[in-house]
Design brief:
6 helices; single chain; 4-stranded mixed sheet
Length: 174
């Protein structure tokens, strides 16, 4: 993409949610602003990071390793996979799988209510509920409902030429 900045090479890049703290030279990459420009929607760390590591705590730091071909190609395969694990249905004890769309397509279908579109789901739906095309009352609940894995988003951004190949450090601050 022509808008992709030329980042200075670093062994580890730091993902920064605030665009004004990041420059192409300081090794910080403004993940929220970049994802919003590429996908038209900001990435929320709330659910996506828990998807990568459900036991991660406040102010933890997570390293996303995408330097090696194996790690990068594995992340791209998962990104392009058309089966999504939605969780386990507590009533039946079975896994719930959604097919036919990628995690990013699913995430992009989730919206926030506005004056023309009323909310269609409650604030905290069960994890196994299919939320394709769901409309939430506000962004907080929409972000918490579903965000794709940050590792997979990074692999796609690398493939698109938006960020350099490398390892990425992200501080989970909520």
């Amino acid at each position: 993409m022509p808008d992709a900045p030329e980042y200075t090479p670093y062994s580890i890049y730091v993902l920064e949610p605030h665009a004004d703290w990041a420059t192409a030279e300081n090794g910080y990459i403004p993940i929220e602003a970049l994802v919003e420009r590429v996908y038209g929607k900001p990435y929320s760390s709330l659910c996506g990071c828990q998807r990568d590591d459900e036991h991660i705590g406040n102010d933890s730091v997570k390293l996303y390793q995408l330097t090696s071909d194996d790690d990068y190609l594995e992340a791209l395969d998962a990104f392009d996979d058309v089966e999504m694990y939605m969780g386990r249905d507590s009533r039946t004890g079975e896994s719930v799988i959604k097919t036919g769309m990628t995690a990013v397509d699913y995430w992009l279908s989730i919206r926030v209510a506005d004056e023309n579109t009323p909310a269609t789901v409650e604030a905290n739906p069960p994890r196994t509920q299919d939320l394709e095309g769901a409309v939430f009352e506000d962004r907080f609940f929409a972000d918490r409902a579903f965000s794709p894995s940050l590792r997979l988003i990074l692999a796609d951004l690398i493939r698109r030429g938006e960020i350099p190949r490398g390892d990425y450090l992200f501080r989970h601050w909520w």
